[in-house]
Amino acid sequence: MDDATAIEGQASKLSQGELDALTDQLIEKLKTVFDPEIPVDIYELGLIYKVDVSDDKDVVIDMTLTAPGCPVAGEMPGWVEDAVKEIPEIKSCKVELVFDPPWDPSRMSDEAKLQLNMF
Q1: Cα separation, 107 vs 119, whole angstroms
Q2: Can you spell out the DSSP letters for 84-100?
Q3: Residue 118 backbone dihedrals phi, psi, to 5 degrees
C-alpha cells in the first residue's frame, strides 16, 4: 500500500490481526472497481484517499475521481460501496467523493503506470 492511502481502525478495539485481514480484503475488493475510461483499478490509480474502519466494522471511504466531470461520478461511489459490502464482516460502507487534493497521475502506483505505459 502506498503512503497516499490510509486504512485505519478507529479507537482500535479491533486487533491488529483483524485490521490487517480486513485491510487485505478491502484492497482486494477496491481492486475490482475500474474507471471505465482507464483500464486500471481505482486502488492502483490512487483514487482512494482514506479508508476508516470502525470497531463495529462500519467503513467510510474518501475517494476522488480522475476529473471532477467524470461521466461516472454519480455511479462510482455506489460501485465501491457494493464491492466493499461483499466482505461478510463489513456492517456498512459509506463513500465520500472529495476533490481536495485534486487527483493527478503522480498518485498512481508503479503497477498502474506500467499498465498505462507511463514509464
Answers
A1: 14
A2: HTTSTT--EEEEEE--S
A3: -105, 15
Residue 99 maps to a domain: yes
Pair type for strands 48-53 and 92-97: unpaired
Copy the grid coordinates of residue 90: 463489513
How many whole angstroms separate alpha carbon 69 and alpha carbon 89? Answer: 34
Q: What domain range includes position 72?
A: 6-115
Cβ 84 vs Cβ 93: under 8 Å: yes
The number of domains in the chain is 1
Residue 1 lies in a domain: no
Neighbours of 101 (CB within 10 A): 10
Q: State the CATH number of the domain containing residue 61.
A: 3.30.300.130
Compute φ and ψ for 45, nearest 5 degrees.
Answer: -70, -15
Q: What is the pTM of this model?
A: 0.85
pLDDT digits (tens, 9 = 90+) for 83-109: 999 999 999 999 999 999 999 999 999
Q: Look at residues 9, 2, 4 and name the one whose alpha carbon lies nearest to residue 23.
A: 9
